[in-house]
Every structure is written in structure tokens, then in C-alpha cells.
Amino acid sequence: MTELWQTLLQAISQLASGDEHLWGIVGVSFSVSLSALLIALLPAISLGFILAYYRFAGRWVAISILNSLLAVPTVVVGLVLYMLLSRAGPLGDYHLLFTQPAMVIGQILLCFPLLVAMSLSAFQAADQRVLETARTLGASRWQAFRTLLFEVRFALMAAVVTAFGRIIAEVGCAMMVGGNILHYTRNITTAIALETGKGEFVQGVALGIVLLSLSLFMNVTLAWMQSNSRVLRQVS
Amino acid sequence: MRLRLSNIHQSFAGQTLFTIPSLTLESGLAVHLHGANGSGKSTLMKIIAGLQRPTLGRVERLFEVSEKDNRQAVIYLHQQAYLFDTHVRANVEYGLKLRGERNPAKVDEALAWAHLEQIQHRAAHHLSGGERQRLALARALVLDPQIVLLDEPGSNLDMTSMERIRQMLAELRDKGTGYVLASHQQNLLSQDCDHNWYLRQGQLVAE
């Protein structure tokens, strides 16, 4: 038990000291995951909107496929992407394997179905009168869409937080297509796996603290914003 | 402004809801649209407002003076007004912002007209039924519409609120704005209408 406490204290101390190596790994995680999230966000929300508001042949098939993709293990996504990007694969000529762009592509594939499914759910739960009210007050289609986004903003923010949490904490895909290269593709999760394998728990725990703190921060912020909105509604 | 409906045919799930060979609506008129529940009143109002396309036929907007913002000339108000998830004043400002207009004086005027100036910073979702209707009307009025379409505006309102809405509609008409009021029965608001339309068995009869 004492050893565990010592490890924890050393981890906190390492974080507080601003260890360049450690924070570099955190930087790779944030850079890759935020890039993936930003690239996937607008197309995913647009697709969620289309699936919620337009009726077309194959709509239910598309929704079923998206829902199925939610359950695909990250390591399977990594495996498929690895085969596509490897030298013998159809995308081998782009030399993307073991690069940060490969990790970004992998994380886009992981967060896209989640973002679509959660935004679809948000739009389906939205009041059907939102778009009609916006349109009758003179909104163009784009302005009405923006109004709808505002009305469902908290559900969409929850989708973003969940998707970011999923990709920054995944290890299977990042390990397979990133290759865990120091100062380049080594991120928080692959570093934890590596250090734990070597019996070096301090750095692993330090990086674990970063992940847990991030998750706590994002969820507390979201809850605070939602609660603030309710307070606003009650102010007279 | 004049609205002309030509050869409107509306069907739902293969069944004809209504057929209207020809109909004209002018700003400045007050019309009561009668019809039983399910007769298609709301659908017809949405077609007139341009929110829904009819199965067949067309709606033309004829502007006699100048064609101002066509999109804000005819405004449809739901039976239960949808208020944006923000405060009262921002709801009134919504349409003005869409056309890039900042006009605090006009917003103040609309809020005062609807007796909402004291609660302009209150969250819109916490208004009573009568306040919601007044806010919806103020949000429309601030855009100087030619025609307002009100879908069952008297439902779920007490007599005091109905009387206030009645006054507001009268004032709206004094400014030259016409309105169509849809309801399945006569009420305090419909008494002031000078034209009656009856939507019965898929046909519209105007009197």
C-alpha cells in the first residue's frame, strides 16, 4: 500500500515538475485527438441532421450500420486501417503508416459514428417547431439549421465530450497505426501500456492522472453549463 | 400585399385532405378559418405561409407597393408558440438579426406593446401560456409582417389573456396587418373577423 502511495506521489511530482518528455506525450494525444474531432465534427453533425430530417431509401440501413459501428472494437478499426495503409495495402503509396495523420484517420473512424448517432438522437429529440419557427421568422435554410444547433447545443456538447473521451482514451488503434514512436506517435495510452510493460509505473500513473483529470474537467464543465442554463431560465 | 392560391390539392397517405381551386388573401383583412379537428387547417396555414409545399398547385405572393423581405411578409404562429431557448428580448430580436438590423427602439416598442418589458430578461421557457402567445405576437410584429397566420391562438388561454390578445390583434390590424385565425369553434378572438372560411369535407368555402 505504501508503495502505491509513493508511486502516486512521484507521479504527481513528475507532472508538477513540468517534465518535458511527459508533457510531450500529452501534447501528441491532444494534437491527434483534437484534430480528429475537429475534422469529423461538421460532417458528422450534418449527417445526423440529414438522417433526422430527411426520408430517403436506405435511411434505416444507414442508421443501423452507424449503430453497429459504435460497438466495433478500436483494435479492429486499427487492424483494418493497418491493412489499408501498409505498404502492400491500397493506400500504401501514401506512406501514412506509423505517422500522426494515420492516428488522426483512425480516431476519425472511431468518433464519427458516435458523433452521428448522438447528434441524430439530439435532432430527433428537438422540438419539430424549431425549424418552422425559424423559417417563418425569415431564416434561410442555413440560418434555420444554425438556430436548431443552438437549441440542441447541450446535447451536441455532450456528444463532443463523449467522442473526445472515446478517442483520447483508446489504445488499440493508436498502437497499431501509430507504432508508439517516441516524440512522434507515442500518446498517453500507448505510453501507459509501454511503461506498465516495463514495470515503470510512475509515468503510467502520471499519464493516467492526466486522462482522469481531463475526463472530470470536461464532464464537470458540461454539467456546469447545463445547470447555468437552467438557472438562466429561472431568473426573473 | 396579396396572396393567391391556385389549384391547391393536398393529400395525405393517398387520401385527399382538401382541394382549393382558387383563393385570394389580402393584407389588412381579418379571416376566421373554421374547420373540425383534422380538417387540414394547420396544413393550409403552413402552405399559405410557405412552410409546406402543397401536393399540387401553387401559392403566389403579389406585392403591390414594394417587395420588402419576402421571407418575413407572412408569419405563421403555432398553436403552442415555440420560444427559443434564450431570454424574452432575444426572442423578439431574432427576426431583426436575421436581416442584419439592430433596432433596440423597435424591440422596446414591441415588448411594450406585448406588456413584456418588465420581464424582457426572463428566460422565455418560463413564461405562462398568455405571455408565450404575446411574445410570439411581438416577435412577429417587430418584423412588420403583411399577414399573420394564427393557429388556434385561444386554446389554453384564460379570459384575461384572450382579451389582451384580442386587443393586440385589433392594434395589429390598425397598422394594416391582416390575419387569419384558425379555430374549430367560435371564441372571443374570432368575433372580430370580417371574413369566414369554412374548411369542410375537403372543400374551402369563403363567405
Q: Give average pLDDT of chain A, whole number.
A: 92
What is the makeup of the main sheet of chain A? none
Percent strand of chain A equals under 5%
Rg of chain A (C-alpha, Å): 21 Å
Shape of chain A: globular
Overall number of strands of chain A = 0
Number of helices of chain A: 11
Structure description:
- The complex is a heterodimer of chains A (236) and B (207).
- Chain A is mostly helical.
- The longest helix of chain A has 34 residues, at 20-53.
- Chain A has helices spanning 2-16, 20-53, 59-69, 74-85, 100-125, 129-136, 141-151, 153-168, 172-178, 188-197, 201-234.
- Chain A has one domain (23-229): MetI-like (MetI-like fold, Orthogonal Bundle).
- Chain A contains 11 helices and no strands.
- Residues 232-236 of chain A have low confidence and may be disordered.
- Chain B has 207 residues and is α/β, with parallel strands linked by helices.
- Chain B has a single domain (2-206), classed as Rossmann fold (3-Layer(aba) Sandwich).
- In chain B, 44% of the residues are buried.
- In chain B, strands 5-6-7-3-8-9 form a 6-stranded mixed beta sheet, sandwiched between helices.
- Classes of the chains: A mainly alpha (236), B alpha/beta (207).
Structure characteristics:
heterodimer, A: 236 residues, MetI-like fold, B: alpha/beta, Rossmann fold, 3-stranded antiparallel β-sheet, 29% strand
Quick structural summary:
The complex is a heterodimer of chains A (236) and B (207). Helix content of chain A is 78%, strand content 0%.
How is this fold's topology laid out?
The complex is a heterodimer of chains A (236) and B (207).
Chain A (H helix, E strand, L loop, with lengths): L1 H15 L3 H34 L5 H11 L4 H12 L14 H26 L3 H8 L4 H11 L1 H16 L3 H7 L9 H10 L3 H34 L2
Helix pairs in contact in A: 1-11, 2-5, 2-8, 3-5, 4-5, 4-9, 5-8, 5-9, 6-7, 8-11, 10-11
Chain B lengths: L1 E11 L2 E12 L3 E6 L5 H9 L6 E7 L11 E4 L10 H11 L5 H10 L15 H13 L5 E5 L7 H16 L3 E6 L11 E6 L2 E4 L1
Parallel strand pairs in B: 3-7, 3-8, 5-6, 6-7
Antiparallel strand pairs in B: 1-2, 1-4, 8-9
